[in-house]
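Sequence of CPBP family intramembrane metalloprotease (Paenibacillus alginolyticus).
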Amino acid sequence: MPIPIHKNRRLILSLTLLGAFGGITVFPYQMSMMSGGLSQTMDQAGLPFGVIIALIVLQVTVMTLIASWVGLSLAAKVGLDLPIWRSWLNEGRFIGFSKKWLVISFLGSFVGTLLVLVLDIYLFQPFLPAIPVTPSVSLWKGALTLFYGGIVEEVLVRLCLMTLLVWVFSRFLRSRTYIPAYLYGIAIIVAALLFGLGHLPATQTLFGELTPALIVRALVSNGLLGIFFGYLYWKKGLEYAILSHMVGDFFLHVVWPSIFS
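Predicted 3D structure, token representation.
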């Protein structure tokens, strides 16, 4: 049964505010990773640095607002939700996390990020073009990315895109009261692949070109963990996907670089 829009207001507001925070905290990392392209864009815009930052944060905030509204408007119709967050905000009752699923979420991110790292080193790197300018990113800047990845990307990709895909796919069923598991699986995979494709502009900026190896690398590196996050959202709720994504980003941008650099 659809949840009335007023029941989602606090959720939408909280996710939007957290999205704005994520947009602020990811900026130092973006500056380090794409300093050349970002500087050129700023020069072409002819706007003060502070205005550029404000516009970028505003863009992230509006995107999170729209994605939250769309996702939450459709989630209940397809059996998806943020049960812990909703119970806490609307009822003042904290129902708690499942210890078993927290362990699954954390271990999945640990294993998934390690697999991504191994694939990148031993499978993709021999076929990748040289990076014109190797970016130097401080570990503290990498740590700040977990708020953007865990909150903004999960709201955009899982809560909005994946939910929308499940809803669209379910429209083609004769019975709309039951959605088979394979439709969730398809939506999870499609959302993860689209998320990987969304990284291609940043990949092109970093390497100066796009090759078949770079495209496959973007799809695999982002898609593997994206499928896992989608599974968590489907089975337990977006809160688990957010936490798992945060843990994954912490391993990718802090733990593994400090060990293997």
